[in-house]
Amino acid sequence: FEIYLNGLNDVRPPLPTDLTRLEALARERLPREAYDYVAGSAGTGDTAVANREAFRHWRIVPRMLRGVAGGDLTTRVLGTDLPAPVLLGPVGVLNIVHPEGELAAARAARSLGVPVVLSTAASHTMEEVAEVAGPRWYQLYWPGDPELAVSLLERARAAGYTALVVTLDTFTLAWRPSDLDNAYLPFLRRVGIQNYLADPVFTAKAGDDPVLHWAGVFGNPGLTWDDLAFLREHWDGPIALKGIQATEDARRAVDAGMDGIVVSNHGGRQVDGAVAALDALPIITHAVGDQIEVLFDSGVRTGADVFKALALGARAVLLGRPYVYGLALDGEDGVRHVLRCLLAELELTLRLSGHDHVAGLSSDDLHEQR
Ligand code: FNR
After folding, report:
1. Catalytic annotation on 266?
2. Which of 10, 43, 96, 132 has the largest CB neighbor count within 10 A?
3. 202 phi and psi, to 5 degrees?
4. Residue ranges per domain, the chain?
């Protein structure tokens, strides 16, 4: 109603409330290389498209006359109380779309009590972001140098990041034609390596070419399930594995004593032709949903999308590109706009579908239409 009331004074929202429209606006505003880096995906973009199509295959079945009192979005994930089942997902190099990058995103999230998952590839250090952030988790790109890994984890803990999200699907960047055609990689221009440059272990070994050293330590392709014990040793909070797409891997995460998984294909940015993330979700939650906390990302654009992911068993979703477009268009206010629209639509969808709490959602609320 706030928006309609403002309309009585001829005040309209500064950005579209249909969040799927932000991408086209960001395209007009951003330098081409930056837009392509954010919007681009692996290969032909097949998986990125499939991520969105999968949402259309699941239709909400609203129920009537259920005496809906309120629309309670609160939940608890990996030891953090959330005002809504949504977090800002880890997106690195945000300075390519706005000079305040991760700082602006963290401020917007904090104003709504929404947690941020800060990327290892952020363009501001984790300590700088911690100063302006509310609830916060840390996303680790597990580097090839174990001493550096420990140092990043110790810094994150000291800066008040409470849960760890370890991204497994990106030990190297994939075949991304738009970036290849632009011959553009932010890291080589020293955007997104700030957390390395601020690290004592990294700088002690980097010599006089830190970018080259970064390229050598960024990825760790030799990791196996056995290595997860190392993380447990060096991180005493909850741990979630991001990039899980196979049921068998979800089971292994349970066996390894992990606290959570993020069902994700990195927004279709890694393996072109990979299974749509939302299609993987119900199979995985069916197998392990009662043994581990399942989070979800890749393709979430609207409140109705969040509803569907929750109904298919996710505890919460990570938001990706939409908040980056909000940031590109209007900085901190743009991110806040995206979050407020998403949460308001989720709350309305919940109530109009006959529910007063997100915990009540299940696959009974959806109809699969192929
Ligand atoms: C990402 N993502 C990502 N993930 C991660 O774990 N660490 C990171 O540094 C990044 N960086 C990053 C940059 C950009 C520009 C994008 C678009 C994405 C992946 C992100 O967390 C999430 O998985 C996807 O964004 C989800 O897909 P959608 O919803 O954005 O399509």
Report:
1. yes
2. 96
3. -60, -50
4. 2-61+68-358
